[in-house]
Write a structure and sequence with these properties.
Layout: H1 5-21, E1 26-27, H2 31-37, E2 44-50, H3 54-67, E3 76-81, H4 86-93, E4 105-110, E5 113-118, H5 120-124, H6 128-142
Parallel strand pairs: 1-3, 2-3
Antiparallel strand pairs: 2-4, 4-5
Helix pairs in contact: 2-4, 3-6
Pfam family, one: Disulph_isomer
Organism: Paenibacillus medicaginis
Protein name: BrxA/BrxB family bacilliredoxin
Length: 144
């Protein structure tokens, strides 16, 4: 029995993708999908740079899920998967200047402009609850 590396990786990361898509976050898997959604999004947009690392599993994805239970949430919810959908991730990161590439990370945009950003180092050393609190505060500030 033989399985290709690409198939193995798709099978391994699917549950990590599902954690976000099952709560209503839309995946952007190509640069064209990123271009069709990010620059034209009116109002507020959350973009989660997903990854396979432990801090994405233990802190970032659960923190995002908790924050989306808040009364005030962004108008649009998107995710790209670093290391998997490389071109889409690179295209999304163009909107996050001046921040260097970081995964996992979480961006909040308003009318196409970055207004709040959580870098990997801000995920690694905080709990899911702290990340949810950070995001909820940003939602209160920018999504009303």
């Amino acid at each position: 029995m033989s399985m290709s590396f690409d198939q193995y990786m798709r099978d391994m990361v699917q549950p990590m993708r599902d954690e976000l898509t099952s709560i209503g976050i839309q995946e952007l898997r190509t640069p064209e999908e990123v271009e069709a959604n990010l620059p034209e999004a009116k109002g507020t947009t959350l973009v989660v740079i997903n990854s396979v690392c432990g801090c994405a599993a233990g802190q970032a994805r659960p923190g995002v899920a908790q924050a989306l239970q808040h009364d005030v949430t962004p108008d649009h919810l998107f995710t790209v998967f670093a290391g998997q959908d490389k071109e889409a991730t690179a295209k999304a990161r163009e909107y996050f200047a001046p921040y260097p590439p970081s995964s996992p990370s979480i961006a909040l945009m308003k009318d196409g402009e970055l207004v709040h950003f959580i870098e990997r180092h801000q995920v690694e050393n905080r709990s899911a609850e702290e990340i949810a609190e950070d995001l909820s505060s940003a939602f209160e500030r920018f999504c009303r």
